Amino acid sequence: MAGRFAQGWLKNILIIAIIVTVVSIAVDIWRNKDLTVSVAHHSVEKTINQHDVDWLTSSYQQPVILYLWATWCPSCRFVSPSINWLQQYQSDLNIKVFSIAIRSGDDRLLQAYMNSKEYRFPVINDQNGHISQQLGISVTPTILIVKNGKVFNSTTGVTTPIGLLARTVAAKYL
């Protein structure tokens, strides 16, 4: 009897997860129908830890998750932990994770914020908004999946960890 009860719950959880994923993808498609992103104007940038980042060139070796966010963005507080989680498994997933913090203060303040949240993903400080402007990004958070030098997928606003993982896996195999 208990086994059937557990199976029923697992079945319901699986159905709910599938529905949430499908709805999330549908909302992303609708929300991003007018999003125009250009990776044509790209340069090598430095992280707040002074490491060179060439995310566009990296995208030819493996899909790159490029997370554009801000410390002052309420929605980013829900998405950043998922990006941090994904970054921890980037070797296993054969992806690279980079981020660009938009208008979030100087490097010292941004590093303090990263430390307080225990975020470990690499972050480029777009203190004046020039990088995000070149990319054509005006909404935070925005997640771009770049593959072979082109935007494979993009999403804005809150996204679920399941949706983010599904997009990442799709970028790897499609």
Percent of residues in helices = 40-55%
Radius of gyration: 17 Å
| Most strands sheet | 5 strands, mixed
Terminal residue distance: 43 Å
Number of helices: 7
Describe the global form. globular
Order of helices and strands: HEEHEHHEHEHEEH
Which band does the percent of strand residues land in? 15-25%
Structure overview:
It is a single chain. The protein has 174 residues and is an alpha/beta fold. The chain contains 7 helices and 7 strands; from the N terminus they run H-E-E-H-E-H-H-E-H-E-H-E-E-H. The strands form 2 sheets. A 5-stranded mixed beta sheet has the order 5-4-3-6-7. A two-stranded antiparallel ribbon has the order 1-2. Strand 4, helix 5 and strand 5 form a beta-alpha-beta unit. The longest helix has 30 residues. It is globular. 33% of the residues are buried.
Q: Which features does this protein show?
A:
two-stranded antiparallel ribbon; globular; single chain; five-stranded mixed β-sheet; 174 residues; alpha/beta; 47% helix
Put the structure in a nutshell.
The chain has 174 residues and is α/β, with parallel strands linked by helices. The protein has seven helices and seven strands; from the N terminus they run H-E-E-H-E-H-H-E-H-E-H-E-E-H.
List the helices and strands and how they pair.
Layout: H1 2-31, E1 45-46, E2 52-53, H2 55-58, E3 64-69, H3 76-88, H4 90-93, E4 96-102, H5 107-117, E5 123-126, H6 130-135, E6 142-147, E7 150-156, H7 161-173
Parallel strand pairs: 3-4, 4-5
Antiparallel strand pairs: 1-2, 3-6, 6-7
